């Protein structure tokens, strides 16, 4: 390999190591002290996360399963599975259910980390690649309220402290008064200190986060799409996005592009930019708008397609997943216009972009294979 543009051997080594899977890197830490120091360095961990070669696809899907006694009764059952092939040429699935450290509701993955809300209301972080997990300290608000009415989750890197934070937006059920509490409760967990900061938030837009869409992480912010119905001004027909700055831990609204008529909306990140993706239900076209230098710019329009229900997430090189109205998962390659059918037979599914991660759940050097 030829060294060009002043690249050093150390730079080349970092670039090569950033391409490797987590399992290989954990073993390579034993080669020498300098490699050990490099592989646990936060800057290298972040570079490894950004590398497309470490990107995989996770699906959560439901299918009917016969009862254990062999009777004719079938029940919808959820499955958590990974497509190990990073090229998606091989569509074999790897079951992740058996590896799951606790049973509960799943959010993510974010930065390779899955968040699990257990049946006892305890939150667990799980790094799928390292098989490391941590159950977080109990939330103080649970001493007053025992039941969640709804939960919204965000997770990402605080660019100020270079530490990871988990954000929970919680609505509780007040059993004594038999109603949902008026104001949401916000809890921010900091990985490095293993501690929560909790506060009640009276801002009305927290009650209007889209129920069906999760959060996205973008440049130090956790972002959620807001429902259109919450707007006080009826003539304001722009997309509204709720952002949470992981640095100063403040909420604010971001005005998105104008909402076209007869359009479904989703939120994602495209080429490191916050992106709003429209699906025109009449013309069956997709349209992507990205936020650049404070302005929304139309990135591309593709279609028309026949029978598509909604866009899901971006994949690699601008391709993205779509869900057919017959519950089929397809991948659209924007460069070639080709469509790939995953032939996933299920009742319903959700797709999740997963990046193998070296992020340390327990802090310090407590990684697997130490």
TrEMBL record:
<protein>
    <submittedName>
        <fullName>F-box protein</fullName>
    </submittedName>
</protein>
């Amino acid at each position: 390999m030829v060294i060009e543009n002043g690249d050093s051997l150390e730079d080349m080594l970092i670039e090569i190591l950033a391409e490797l899977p987590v399992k290989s890197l954990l073993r390579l830490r034993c080669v020498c002290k300098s490699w050990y120091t490099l592989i646990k360095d936060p800057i290298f961990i972040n570079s490894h996360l950004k590398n497309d070669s470490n990107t995989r696809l996770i699906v959560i899907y439901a299918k009917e399963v016969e009862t254990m006694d062999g009777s004719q009764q079938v029940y919808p059952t959820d499955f958590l599975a990974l497509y190990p092939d990073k090229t998606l040429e091989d569509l074999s699935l790897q079951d992740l259910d058996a590896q799951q450290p606790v049973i509960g509701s799943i959010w993510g993955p974010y930065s390779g980390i899955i968040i699990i809300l257990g049946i006892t209301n305890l939150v667990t972080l799980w790094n799928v690649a390292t098989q490391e997990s941590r159950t977080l300290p109990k939330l103080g608000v649970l001493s007053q309220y025992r039941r969640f009415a709804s939960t919204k989750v965000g997770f990402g890197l605080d660019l100020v402290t270079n530490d990871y934070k988990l954000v929970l937006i919680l609505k509780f059920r007040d059993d004594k008064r038999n109603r949902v509490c008026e104001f949401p409760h916000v809890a921010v967990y900091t990985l490095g200190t293993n501690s929560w900061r909790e506060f009640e938030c009276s801002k009305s837009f927290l009650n209007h986060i889209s129920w069906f869409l999760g959060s996205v992480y973008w440049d130090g912010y956790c972002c959620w799409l807001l429902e259109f119905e919450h707007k006080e001004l009826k003539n304001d027909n722009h997309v509204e996005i709720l952002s949470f700055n992981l640095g100063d831990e403040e909420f604010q609204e971001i005005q998105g592009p104008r909402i076209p008529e007869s359009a479904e909306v989703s939120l994602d990140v495209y080429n490191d930019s916050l992106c709003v993706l429209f699906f025109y239900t009449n013309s069956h076209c997709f349209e992507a708008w990205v936020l650049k230098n404070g302005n929304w710019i139309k990135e591309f329009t593709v279609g028309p397609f026949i029978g598509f229900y909604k866009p899901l997430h971006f994949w690699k090189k601008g391709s993205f997943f779509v869900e057919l109205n017959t519950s089929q998962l397809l991948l659209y390659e924007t460069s070639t216009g080709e469509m790939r059918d995953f032939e996933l037979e299920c009742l319903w599914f959700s797709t999740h972009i997963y990046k193998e991660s070296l992020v340390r759940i327990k802090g310090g050097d407590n990684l697997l294979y130490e």
